Structures are given as structure tokens and as C-alpha cells.
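Memo to structure team: turn this sequence into C-alpha cells by end of day. - J.P.
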Amino acid sequence: MDTISNSFHTLHMPGMASCWKTLNETHQIDKLSFPDGLELLLQSELDSRRNNRIDRLIRNANFKQQASLEELETSDARGIPAGAITQLSTGEYLKNGATIVISGPTGTGKSFLACALGERACRLGYKVRYYTVSRLMDELKLARLEGHELKFFEKIEHLDLLIIDDFGMKRLEGQQQNDFEQIIDDRYHKKSLILSSQLAVADWYGIFSNEMLAEACLDRIVHKSLRFELKGDSMRKKY
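Reply from structure team:
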């Protein structure tokens, strides 16, 4: 028995090793036919690999906070309709490369909603990355200084879902506007984007100093986007 268990570990099959151990400890191994036992072992390994991949996707997403749709307090009064969340929870919008815009005052749960949608996307097997707009611009600036900006743009482009939080916290200047426009253009109708901001969409033009780039970006972001306008008392103590 130890030889079989050791072989599973040698072959990097922890799910099978765990299942084999459980079957022996519960004295079920002799009660199962070979096909039934093999099916249990294979399913255990598949489940283990799937869970490990989900954990890795969530870890790599670098979310600001732990959040899930199950914890989300839906309410029409708060601007988070239950029906809309249920529809998004299927991940269908990710297949269509849809954009989601979340706006509202400080503390209304914008970041939580964005991270909860991102967490669900990870559980569905999609690659996700969370950034504040400041962190995104800082990392891109560093990549440009090191001569790796093309690789950085490719990495961002290949994400199934990009989350940009705190959009509008500071004005985009100079090269930042061009970089932001390229990121948005690369994703348009191809890969999904979640954009969160304290500012109302009507005030977003003021984030850019170049009117032409503002129109190019906002036309792509706002056109056919799914919008959540959060309101109500601060949820900071809860989330």
C-alpha cells in the first residue's frame, strides 16, 4: 500500500494519493470494483488540480481584498440589482469581452464588487489581474524605463479580465494617456474590463488633458458597457 501511495506522490498526483489514503483508512478499498476505484482516484486528482489552478489564479490576480459574490449584499436601492449579479455570475460577459463600469461615492463597495466579480471569474477558470490606476501606471512606467513595455502590454492584453480601480483619483498626463488608450484599445470587444471610479461617468473627460485621447478612450469604455451606480451609506465597516 505504501508503495502505491509513494508512487502517486512521485508522479505528482496528490489528489490520487489523498483519495487512496482515505480509501484505505475507511476500509473501502476492498469493497470497490477496479473501475469504480479507478474512477474515484481519477476524479479526486481532477478536483485537486482544478482547485490548485483556481487558488493560483486568485493568488496571481492580486486582489485588493478577499471578496465573493456570495458575500455581496445586493439591493436595488444600493444600485446592485440581484438579477444583474446573477447574470454576471455565469461569466458569459467574459466570453463577449464586455466592459463593466462601477461608480459611486467613497465607501459604497465599488472595490468589493469589482473584486467579487474577479474572484468569480477566477473560479470559472479565467485569468484576472487587479490594479489601481496608479499602480498600473507605475508598473508601466517602470517597464518602459527597462525597455519591457511591449511585454507588459502583451501581458495585460492576454488577461481575460482586467480590473482597474480608483480611476480618476488623479489626472492622466502625457504618456500615461497614450498608454491607457492603448490598454483600452487592445481590449475593446475582445477581453473584458472592469473600471471603478468615484467620479460619475459624465466627469471622466476631466481625467485627461488631451481631448482627442479622452474621446477615444471613453467612447470604447462607455459604449455598450454594463453600469453599476452605487449609492447609500458607507459599507467600509462591513467590507
